[in-house]
Amino acid sequence: MKYCSNCGSEVEYKIPATDNRERACCPACNTVHYVNPKIVVGTIPVWQDKILLCKRAIEPRHGYWTLPAGFMELHETTHAGALRETWEEAQARVELGPLFTCLDVLRAEQVHLFYRATLLEPTFGAGPESLEVGLFGEAEIPWDELAFKTVSTTLTRFFEDRQAGFYGLHTGDVFEPTHWTPSHFKG
Amino acid sequence: MKYCSNCGSEVEYKIPATDNRERACCPACNTVHYVNPKIVVGTIPVWQDKILLCKRAIEPRHGYWTLPAGFMELHETTHAGALRETWEEAQARVELGPLFTCLDVLRAEQVHLFYRATLLEPTFGAGPESLEVGLFGEAEIPWDELAFKTVSTTLTRFFEDRQAGFYGLHTGDVFEPTHWTPSHFKG
Fold it and tell me: Which of A162, A164, A173, B117 could in theory staple to B43 by disulfide, Cβ–Cβ 3.0 to 4.6 A?
């Protein structure tokens, strides 16, 4: 950020009087510009024993596979955002289940939230941001062609929990989730 | 936003070619300025059967009581942010437990994450953003003087779960959490 988005003056980087870290501050209109991490919301859409994945038609990671997910927008809840992204990227309608992963991605300044989800019917298709969409059994997951570490972590934890018979909540850094809160419900 | 933070030109509000909603777009340098919800991270700090609350020394809600919480910053995880806010507002050192609430606050364009936490020792104090900090038993909570709906919702769910003997994860809109994932562990 070089200019104030409120008045167009050049900003100065300094620690505001009532703060403890450097911000972009406008010397003309006194606006302090805060920049914070963004939220990515997505789903793990399940049909029977298979998972719905999308092949990305956009950068970053064009041509790699992902769970449907994207930036949470203003004026929507995390639930609504997860449903919207699942529709936009995979043209799929799902019923949301519990939050499954809440993963910090420090490098990208993002937090990724994935909800478990069940396809309402086995119909789906490639939205404008996908090249291809398909259902994959555990043995068919293209592990070497997954787009993001949060996707591989979420899928790994999902299959582990499914095997154990208890789905949990996994939080922490993408490289090593530090907390697992198991669900009380089987299946 | 009226001016491009990259080049200082006046922005235009329009739907970019590859998008489906209006953004602030710069006609000079072609930057698209995305604005997304912010994350607030906090804790429910417990010492024996009491909860640590802070009386706010800043607006909004100056003089009202809150759980320690604040905006997640760049270059930190949600865990680190929750620990930092607990230190900054309540001068308290805690061990984090599982994520307890993930609540949408549409009006404020925020998502609030509260982690369960245990005080490492019964020492605390008012940081620069607090007038006063204290431990409250369930019967002593100043319900009519709580600062935010996410705080009252989080405390209500906490005492319900404590009573039930199972702590869960509560997600959804602040006015009505839609999912409860109980923990498998008692206490």
Answer: B117
